[in-house]
Design a protein that fits this description.
Distance between the termini: 27 Å
Strand content: 15-25%
Number of strands: 6
Order of helices and strands: HHHHEEEHEHEHE
Structural class: alpha/beta
Strand order of the largest sheet: 5-4-3-6
Shape: globular
Number of helices: 7
Length: 183
């Protein structure tokens, strides 16, 4: 389970994912060009700019994964502790939330950022990107999943809703105990 991975393994996965994204830059750029061509006549310039990936932005995504690997592991930290009058010692310790869902629109970099932060914090992630960035986001997610697979992590730890159908969002939001973040 991703919730019990040690810090070194999480960091190794993040570093491998950064390398894998850099190694497959052309694949990401090709998918991004498909997204741009599909949306350039319907998106305003600000939204289109959020969608566009280039070498510099992909390098930034990879740097973000490396930076997250350098953060302290948030899991298992003693947040507070106290002793009861009867001698019982009580601690509040940080633990993973479980499953996090992220719904986002035209920024394909969000897929990598969310995946990295959820891995670091021991949480399973369900991603639902917007139709504008569907191809780019799907490639980024699949490349990160390759890194999970290399380290024998269940691919259920990072899931991508494989449709642009808006009904999928409604279904996700109705799931029991679903935590959603809209970016």
């Amino acid at each position: 389970s991703i919730s019990v991975l040690n810090s070194k393994k999480k960091n190794d996965i993040l570093l491998h994912a950064a390398e894998n994204l850099m190694k497959n830059k052309k694949k990401i750029l090709h998918a991004n060009n498909l997204d741009i061509e599909k949306n350039k006549s319907t998106l305003n310039s600000a939204l289109l700019d959020r969608l566009i990936l280039d070498n510099k932005r992909i390098e930034g995504i990879c740097k973000g994964l490396v930076d997250i690997s350098k953060l302290d592991d948030p899991i298992g930290k003693i947040l507070s502790e106290w002793k009861r009058p009867n001698g019982l010692k009580i601690q509040r310790v940080s633990v993973p939330l479980g499953v996090i869902g992220v719904i986002y629109e035209s920024r394909p970099n969000v897929a990598a950022d969310a995946a990295a932060l959820c891995l670091k914090s021991g949480n399973t992630l369900i991603l639902r990107g917007g139709s504008e960035s569907f191809n780019s986001s799907s490639v980024i997610i699949n490349l990160i999943r390759e890194s999970l697979q290399k380290f024998n992590i269940d691919l259920g730890a990072l899931q991508n809703v494989p449709t642009t159908d808006r009904d999928a969002v409604g279904y996700l939001l109705k799931m029991d105990q679903f935590v959603d973040v809209i970016i």
